[in-house]
Amino acid sequence: MAQQSSGYPKPSSWMALSALSLGLLAALPAVAADSLPAGDGFLAGIHRHKILGSTVPDNGDQNPYAVIVAPVSAGKIAKGDVLIDNFNDKNNLQGLGTTIVDYNPTSKALTLIASFPRDQAGCPGGVGLTTAMTMLKSGWIIVGSLPSKDGMTGTKGQGCLLVTDAAGKFATVISTPNINGPWGNMAVIDKGDTATLFVSNTGFGVTAPGQDVVRQATVLRLDLAIAAGKLPVVTKETVIGSGFAEQADKDVFIIGPTGLALAKDGTLYVSDAIDNRIAAIENAAARPDSAGLGKTVTTGGLMHRPLAMAITADQHLLVTNGLNGQIVEIDPAKGKQVGARWIDKNEAQTPPGSGDLFGFALTPDGKGFYYVEDEVNMLVLAQ
């Protein structure tokens, strides 16, 4: 979520931000394992949360959004590294973040991987990096942009998908009429020489805060060909979900479908933030048409504006809440909400942790997850 909703003062520099962050973290209450019923699933095995460090690069970008784990070693990146991008600039303006950083769990070092010019040629409206990011087995990094000129939704651009190599060198732009505000965390099928990306788009029909809910958000499937030593090329694009609710928001920029997770049976799950539900799109990799809003898996309950999402080895869904600091576990086969855990109890927000959570990713062993606390620009490991 955008930091402007947190109520914290805007830091004027990275050093000011770091001091503010550490002070706030020291004041946060501990996250107790039994503070909320976790059920008997994945979350029952999570017992501690370890702060790994700041996500802020030297240029002061903040508001970490995407969190992914590198599938291979390539360029500057080691397999298992955590890649994070930033949606806000050093002035805390949304849609102006331009950087991707790398956290190495072994060295504990944070390294700048990529930095784009704000007016990147070929990307309509420029650069404001979103939760739509992946690294492919071929080493290419693909990241979404939903840019703004002044930090407000009223000046947003169409955006694009930006491609860099594993050294962070800009390679190309993917821009088509079907890409407008690529927003949510990607689901990916990666076979090396081909890949399929699933991306939600929240820019269609959205103008500025105060506008009513618009039902034009989509889920787009992009099929890529990746020849050795060549750039990824889009071979086919198909809208497989449509009509999802979206809305401009003065605090969080845009609210819309955010989490995407692909199950072993080919079902794509989508977190429908405004309608507070999880949707299922069947046969996602092969369907030739849109499933519309898909089938409702679960709604309401422990979910409070569901955002980023991942799927466990047991095919349970984990989804962060936008309106409190909890993560919720769902058994989609049964349509059951298994339980939830507090992972950000920051009482400076109401409810605690509201607007603090966004991207997260499972650890390589599948037993824990990395997540970001947006309000303090910190990467955290839950185990």
What does this structure look like?
By secondary structure, the chain is mainly beta. It has a single domain (3-382), classed as Neuraminidase (6 Propeller), CATH 2.120.10. It has one helix and 25 strands. It has one helix at residues 14-27; strands at residues 49-54, 62-69, 82-88, 99-103, 110-115, 129-135, 141-145, 160-164, 170-174, 187-190, 194-201, 214-225, 233-249, 253-255, 260-262, 268-272, 277-281, 295-299, 306-311, 317-321, 326-331, 336-342, 357-362, 369-373, 378-382. The chain has a five-stranded antiparallel beta sheet, with no helix packed on it. Strand 10 and strand 11 (194-201) form a beta hairpin. The two termini are 23 Å apart.
Fold blueprint:
Blueprint: H1 14-27, E1 49-54, E2 62-69, E3 82-88, E4 99-103, E5 110-115, E6 129-135, E7 141-145, E8 160-164, E9 170-174, E10 187-190, E11 194-201, E12 214-225, E13 233-249, E14 253-255, E15 260-262, E16 268-272, E17 277-281, E18 295-299, E19 306-311, E20 317-321, E21 326-331, E22 336-342, E23 357-362, E24 369-373, E25 378-382
Antiparallel strand pairs: 1-25, 2-3, 3-4, 4-5, 6-7, 7-8, 8-9, 10-11, 11-12, 12-13, 13-14, 15-16, 16-17, 17-18, 19-20, 20-21, 21-22, 23-24, 24-25
Give a quick rundown of the structure.
With 383 residues, the chain is mostly beta strands.
Question: What gap, in angstroms, lies between the N and C termini?
Answer: 23 Å
The total of helices stands at 1
Query: Biggest sheet, open or closed, and with what strands and sense?
Result: 5 strands, antiparallel
Low-confidence stretches: 1-34
- Counting DSSP E segments of at least 2 residues, the number of strands comes to 25
**Overall geometric form:** globular
> Helix- and strand-based class?
mainly beta
